[in-house]
Amino acid sequence: MQRHTITPREDWQKKVEQVxxxxxxxxxxxPGATYxxxxxxxxxxxxxxxxxxxxxGMLQEMCLAAGQYIVxxxxxxxxxxxxxxxxxxxxxxxxxxxxxxxxxxxAYDGREIKLLEYNADTPTALLEAAVVQWYWLQELFPKAxxxxxxxxxxxxxxxxxxxxxxxxxxxxxxxxDEDNFTSAYLEDTAQQAGLKTRDIMMKDxxxxxxxFAFVDLEEQPIRTIFKLYPWEWLLTEEFGSKAxxxxxxxxxxxxxxxxxxxQWIEPIWKMMLSNKGLLAILWEMYPEHELLLPAYFDGPHxxxxxxxxxxxSREGANIILVQDGDKQATYGPYGSEGFIYQALAPIPNxxxxxxxxxxxxxxxxxxxxxxxxxxxxxxxxxxxFVPHLFR
Length: 391
What we know:
About 30% of the residues lie in helices and about 25% in strands. The chain is an alpha+beta fold. The strands form five sheets. A five-stranded antiparallel beta sheet has the order 4-3-16-17-18. Strands 11-15-12-13-14 form a five-stranded antiparallel beta sheet, covered by helices on one side.
C-alpha cells in the first residue's frame, strides 16, 4: 500500500457533483477543507486486494456466527438491546427477511488486517466508493483497476429482491446532506433494477390507527421501506413500538392477501451486528484471531494502548483513545448505553494522514473499498474520502 500525491482535476467540484456528490467540501471558506479529496490516492497491489477481499468474506462469516451466538446464548443485555425488540430479532434471524448491505472498517498497515468495527445497519460513504472514485479512475488512470463492483452488485441484489418486496419501495432518511444523497443513490440502484420507488423523510411517516399501517403524506400504506435510519433511534420514536407490533417478517409477498404490516430494510436483526458490543463477542468466540483486535465489555484488562468506544456511537463521537499514557477524547451524545474497550489498531501514518479502509458487503458478497483519511487516529465526520486503485 502506497500513498501518492497528485494535482486534482480541473473543475473537480463540478465533476463530482455531476455524479451525485453534492457534499464535497467541508468548509467553503477554508481552502483545502474538502471531504472528497483527490489531491492524493492510495495504490495497492492485486495481491493486497485479494487479501482484503478474502478477509472481508471471512469477517462476514464470523459476524454471522456471532449473531447466532448472541441468539443462542441470549447476549442481548450485553448489547443493551431493548427487551421488546428481542422476539422480533429472533424471528427475523430465523426467517431471513431481505438484507442489503454493510461496511467493515479495517485497519491495514501493509501487513496486518484488523477489524475496527462493522457498520451493518446504516453505513454511508457509499456513493463515493461505488461511483465517484470509479469516474475519477476512468478519467485519470484508465489502465489501472479498482476494487469496486459495488454498483453492479447493488443492482443485482435489488433484482433478486423483486419477488420479496412490496412496490413501491420507500426510501426513508433524515434531512442531512450525507443521508439525502446516500438514500437517493440507493433508490437509483433500485430503479435501475426495475423497482418502483418513492422517497420519504422519516419525520413524514405517519401511522394510521384505523388500518394499523404506516403511511406516507398521502396516507398511502408503506409496505416495504429501506430506512437510512438506525434501529436504535427508530425504536425510541413516538411510533417505535408500532414498528415492532406491525412488522412484516415474511419473505413471500406475492401472496398479497397475506401481507400485513411493514417490511423494513435493513431487517431488525442488524441491531446485533451494528452494535460495537459485537467486537467483544467476536473476541470471546475467536480469541487471538489474526483479523481481530482484543476487545472487552468490562474494561481495558491488561491493554496499555486502547480505545474506549460507546456501543452505539457514530462518526467517531464519544471516543477515548489511550496511547503511551496520553489520552485523546471526542465528544457527543453517546455513551449512556455503555462501552467496549478495544486494543489500539495498527493504522499507518502517511505524513500525518491515517487511512481507514471501508470494505463493503452487498448481501453476503465482498464488493469493494472506500478509504477515509484523518489527521488523527480517530475517524470522524470531518475525515476525508480519498480514492484508490490497484495495478
